[in-house]
Amino acid sequence: MSSTLIIHSFVHSQFTKIVSVVVLLSVFSLAACSEAKSNEKKSEKPHPITGLVIEPAQKNGVFYQLNDLATAIKAGKRQQKRVLIYFTGWFDVNSRKMEDRILIDKEIQALLAENYLCFSAYVDDKQKIPGSDKSIGEKNMELQMDRFKSTSQPHFCILDESGNLINEVHNTPTVEAFLAFLEKGLK
Fold first, then answer.
1. Three-state SS at 18
2. pLDDT by residue (tens digit) across 82-100?
3. Residues 6+ apart with CB under 8 A from 136
4. Residue 41 has pLDDT above 80, yes or no
5. Backbone dihedral angles phi then psi of residue 151, each to the nearest 5 degrees
6. In whole angstroms, how far apart are CA 135 and each of 48, 67, 72, 101, 106?
7. Residue pair 74/64 in contact by the 8 Å Cβ criterion
8. Could you give the C-alpha distances from 180 to 52, 85, 107, 187, in angstroms and in order?
9. What is the pLDDT of residues 109-167, one digit of tens each?
10. From edge to edge, which strands make up the β-sheet containing 82-88?
């Protein structure tokens, strides 16, 4: 056996071990993240005034968990606020970027808190709906596809007190663009 062949065989063996370790670490990381999300959901408590469940993954408690659209619209009408539905995913990188760059802006947070009742609709939530074969994510994805004709996240939809779509936007790169979207939803 030539020395080149021995070196090649050794390098290939080491590379295979490294790839195996990286794959295992990725699997463990995803499992830990999924377990953390599962534990987060178990600790949710309804808001004492609205009776709605605040979504723990969202910044500053502005967003509630979407249980069903009719309840969201009724709650918005009761509080005389527009309803903002935020279609997102636990593992959606663009949604996390929106949250970290856009939704944490103080002006946006103030506008949301004052004028909107905001709901998160996770399309990849694996939790089963009691009494149904569907998961929450499947229900949210069907709502997004059937009602809003979209399958991409992040996707924001503004509804009036009757449930009519006023405005919608997908991934928005700037605070200014998202503010314009929200302000247009108030007209």
1. helix
2. 999 999 999 999 999 998 9
3. 122, 125, 126, 127, 128, 129
4. no
5. -130, 10
6. 26, 12, 19, 29, 34
7. no
8. 27, 17, 12, 11
9. 999 999 999 999 999 999 999 999 999 999 999 999 999 999 999 999 999 999 999 99
10. 63-65, 116-122, 82-88, 155-159, 165-169
Confidence of residue 67 (pLDDT cuts 50, 70, 90): confident
- Residues in contact with 61: Cβ distance below 8 Å, sequence separation at least 6, in sequence order: 54
Residue 65, number of CB atoms within 10 A of its CB:
21
Residue in the block written with tokens 């949604």: 95
Residue pointed to by tokens 């009776």: 51
Nearest residue to 143 (alpha-carbon basis) of 68, 41, 54, 65: 68
| CB-CB contact of 120 with 57 (8 Å) | yes
Using H for helix, E for strand and C for coil, what is the string for 121-172?
EECCCCCECCCCCCEHHHHHHHHHHHHHCCCCCCEEEEECCCCCEEEEECCC
Cβ neighbors of 126 (< 8 A, separation 6 or more) are 135, 136, 137
Between CA 142 and CA 163 the distance in angstroms is 17
Residues 6+ apart with CB under 8 A from 26: none
pLDDT exceeds 70 at position 103? yes
